[in-house]
Amino acid sequence: MKIKAFIDNTLINSKYFNRESESAGDFLKGLHVHENEFINNGDIPSGQNIAEYIFSKSEGFDYMFYFFSDSKFYDINENNKLIRQSLKYKADYGYGENFPEGVIGEIVKRDALPVMSNVYKQNNIKHDRNVFGGIIN
User: Fold this and answer.
1) DSSP character for 128?
2) Region class of 84: left (phi > 0), else alpha (psi between -120 and 50), else beta
3) CA atoms within 13 A on the CB side of 65
4) In this predicted structure, what is the pLDDT of residue 78?
5) DSSP 3-state assignment of 106?
6) pTM for the complete prediction?
């Protein structure tokens, strides 16, 4: 199973994790993913939602790991545990239940992204920090 990490810079003012950040590099090196990509303001084409964008950038991958770049408290062990469990149980979606915001990212099966995109469109959902969890709930 191939996993691609998406690091979202679109909803923040100060970028804790960015291309030059040593902290982001350390976190990403320890994360069990095969590739990563930063999402910056202007990257998502007009009329496209975040699920569509990630789907378009993830061909050849089975899962997407998604997190915001300004969270300073990501726990590498818990995030890798989430990845392992999601792969083991073939989950469509996984998140850090009972963890405070900014500790655990979200993982989404690529096949689930078109469905999530349709929910975004049908309900006119705006991009916010509850990216995929808001759709599931």
Assistant:
1) -
2) alpha
3) 29
4) 95
5) strand
6) 0.87
Question: What are 52's two structure tokens?
Answer: 């569509």
34: which 2 tokens? 């095969």
**Residue 88 and residue 126: Cα distance in Å, rounded?**
31
- What does the pLDDT look like over 67-122, one tens digit per residue? 887 777 888 999 999 999 999 999 999 999 899 888 899 999 999 999 999 998 89
Q: Is 105 helix (H, G, I), strand (E, B) or coil?
A: coil
H or E element, residue 32: none
- Identity (one letter) of the amino acid at 49? N
Token couple for 42? 């202007």
C-beta neighbour count of 44 within 10 angstroms: 19
Report residue 41 as tokens.
């303001």
DSSP of 46-94, one letter per residue? TT--HHHHHHHT-TT-SEEEEEETT-S---HHHHHHHHHHHHHTT-SEE
Q: Which residues contact 124 (CB under 8 A, 6 or more apart)?
A: none
Question: Residue 2, Cβ neighbours under 10 Å: how many?
Answer: 12
End-to-end, the C-alpha distance of the chain in Å comes to 26
Q: Tokens for 3, please give them.
A: 């996993």
